[in-house]
Design a protein that fits this description.
This protein has about 625 residues and is α+β, with helices and mostly antiparallel strands. It has 15 helices and 20 strands. Strand 9 and strand 10 form a beta hairpin.
Length: about 625
């Protein structure tokens, strides 16, 4: 593949450079600091490799001058922070940017074949070359990581001395120099040869990716966190690490949480109170709130007391009933419930201000065209704002399958903010008829297909979790799989008919016992997000035509009959009749990483054409 142009690479600094003389390495887009190159990830810049530093520390902070604050109270409350910050912009005006540290430290010289720590090559300041050969050094292709999120160098010393006697405790104390070369016979690991000048037999890298490869050497994870710097002590871990390619997607996967800005928080009037909400929530009377505001702002509050009381009441409505502390999943579900209620209700002219960031209206057309399809309540979301925050990251696991214990923190200490991006755009919200949906989901064949996916998904989550007993239940249900697949075919249809690329659209599912809705909205911050073309697709007549066309298109796949008759597909069998030729989307558009999809629940199968929810559409 052709490497990306230099202007899109990340600015950063070699950890060996003095703080007052930081080197500019490159630049990437702001959004990539959340989704691709966030804290703890590895990034290649030219021929060098770095790990993106954490959010705190003397040489790892984000410059507040280049990281503007953004607010979304509901999401901030969920994640336990006061506010969020945009990543620094990668442009000519950026003075500091985001710091990086060299990782992996082990490098090889292609001329003399020596394998050493980078500093042992004595390179000139600001360059990554061998001090003897003047050849560009090559970062180690291999790293090791554990499921807890720790990252470390590949133990080349232990690997080459494993058969020399004395065990792993004496390896590396022989006084020799490691060398790494490629035999050139093939492109496999067998052709990568590691040797030591102390005289032990040379070995290849074959077998280093086995799950038990490092366990067989008697090695355990040391708990190192290079993104937090050497000043932060390693955590006691003791798990068995795995060998990974430095550029593997398993090395870093973001844990993203998002929320829509909805009234009464969507006009921005409550933003000045962000730092004081925890204190205000403890107060009950109006007099106490008024006194707190006067003390906090040393005079007149930027928000009238009546509005503050109304905001406090609105926030307490989202508190769970009873004294039992809710889990994170329960609180995140409550956040989605509030969005669903607001999308159903919309907001009228009287509720809007000039700064309102959520405008949702009932479609003007006659909704009777949608009734035969089992679709109801289309809403035109003419203006919306979504905040996506990087909560943490994982290694060696699917972020949708991990539990909180496997999430690696972005900083060594507790933070009052998290990195985030905001997206402004438009969308279309629709619901399925509850009575028809309930009757359809109770069918034996429908429930059986959903149960197969739920069982497969549960099995995958248990395999990837450190503690299978703490794995949350799978969200797979007939209702959820149907809504998910319908959202995918609608996005594909609109990418063909409405001029939107599929990657510019995103789904947001509201699938629960008391929810059955889909929001398809623009997911980019450029001009494709606010042209008004998507809202126009939500008028009932046009929406009915789009759904009919999308369902008929989903009836056939170029991979049929293999696709529609598949007993299991996708990761671990978490899909049924779904593939890249029919309903799968770009990963940025899907909330569930293209799993839990089955177009048979839309259109049926050749053996059971009435299985699909929209079977009546195909009969006409």
């Amino acid at each position: 593949m052709t490497p990306p142009p230099a202007r899109r690479r990340r600015p950063g600094a070699d950890h060996q450079a003095p703080a007052h003389n930081l080197l500019r390495r490159g630049a990437i887009r702001r959004s990539q600091m959340i989704t691709t190159y966030g804290v703890g990830s590895l990034i290649a810049v030219d021929q060098e490799s770095f790990v993106v530093s954490g959010l705190d520390g003397a040489d790892a902070h984000w410059s507040t001058d280049e990281s503007p604050q953004i607010y979304e109270r509901r999401l901030a409350r969920l994640l336990g922070v006061h506010h969020f910050r945009l990543p620094p912009a990668s442009d000519d005006h950026s003075k500091d940017g985001v710091r990086v540290r060299r990782f992996p430290v082990m490098h090889a010289c292609p001329e003399c074949s020596e394998l050493r720590r980078h500093r042992d090559f004595t390179p000139p300041p600001g360059r990554s070359v061998c001090g003897t050969c003047e050849a560009d050094l090559v970062p180690s292709r291999f790293v090791i990581a554990c499921e807890v999120g720790h990252l470390d160098e590949f133990p080349y010393w232990h690997w080459v001395h494993r058969a020399a006697g004395g065990g792993a405790t004496t390896a590396g104390q022989c006084g020799g120099t490691l060398k790494l070369r490629t035999s050139g016979r093939s492109s496999s690991l067998r052709s990568i040869i590691v040797s030591c000048t102390c005289g032990v037999p040379e070995v290849s890298m074959e077998g280093s990716f086995r799950k038990s490869a490092l366990k067989d050497l008697g090695l355990r994870c040391r708990g190192t966190r290079p993104w937090l710097g050497t000043a932060v002590p390693a955590q006691s871990c003791g798990t068995t690490p795995r060998t990974l390619q430095r550029g593997s997607s398993a090395v870093w996967q973001p844990v993203l949480k998002s929320a829509l800005s909805i009234p009464p928080w969507s006009d921005g009037r409550a933003d000045p109170l962000a730092e004081h909400w925890d204190e205000l929530r403890k107060l009950n009377s109006r007099a106490e709130v008024e006194m707190c505001l006067k003390f906090a702002f040393k005079g007149e509050s930027p928000v009238p007391v009546d509005e503050v009381m109304a905001l406090l009441d609105a926030e307490r409505e989202e508190d769970p009933a009873g004294d039992e502390a809710p889990t994170f999943d329960h609180r995140y579900r409550a956040l989605r419930n509030k969005e669903y209620e607001r999308l159903r209700a919309g907001n009228d002219e009287r509720e809007r201000s000039r700064d309102e960031q959520f405008i949702c209206e009932t479609a003007l057309g006659d909704p009777t065209a949608l009734r035969p399809l089992g679709v109801t309540g289309p809403m035109l979301v003419k203006k919306l704002r979504e905040v996506r925050a990087l909560k943490a990251f994982t290694r060696l696991a699917d972020p949708d399958s991990t539990i909180e214990g496997n999430e690696a923190a972005l900083a060594a200490s507790e933070l009052t903010w998290l990195p985030a991006m905001e997206v402004r755009g438009e969308g279309v919200f629709l619901r399925l008829d509850d009575e028809r949906l309930d009757a359809w989901s109770r069918a034996t064949a429908v429930a059986a297909r959903a149960e197969r996916m739920r069982t497969a998904h549960r099995r995958v989550m248990e395999q990837r979790a450190a503690d299978p007993s703490r794995v949350p239940p799978s969200p797979a249900s007939p209702r959820m799989v149907l809504l998910h697949t319908l959202a995918h075919v609608l996005i594909n249809e609109w990418s063909l008919d409405a001029g939107y690329p599929a990657a510019a659209l995103r789904e947001r599912l509201y699938a629960d016992d008391d929810m059955a809705g889909i929001l398809v909205y623009t997911a980019t911050s450029d001009s494709a997000g606010s042209l008004g073309g998507l809202v126009a697709q939500g008028e009932p007549d046009r929406l009915a035509q789009t759904i009919r066309s999308a369902v008929r298109r989903a009836e056939w796949c170029s991979s049929d009959p293999l696709c529609v008759e598949s007993e299991a597909s996708g990761t671990g069998g978490t899909n049924l009749a779904a593939c890249h030729a029919c309903v799968m989307l770009p990963e940025t558009s899907c909330e569930h990483n293209n799993i839990l999809l089955d177009r048979a629940l839309l259109v049926g199968t050749p053996d059971d054409p009435h299985l699909g929810f929209f079977a009546n559409v195909l009969e006409r």
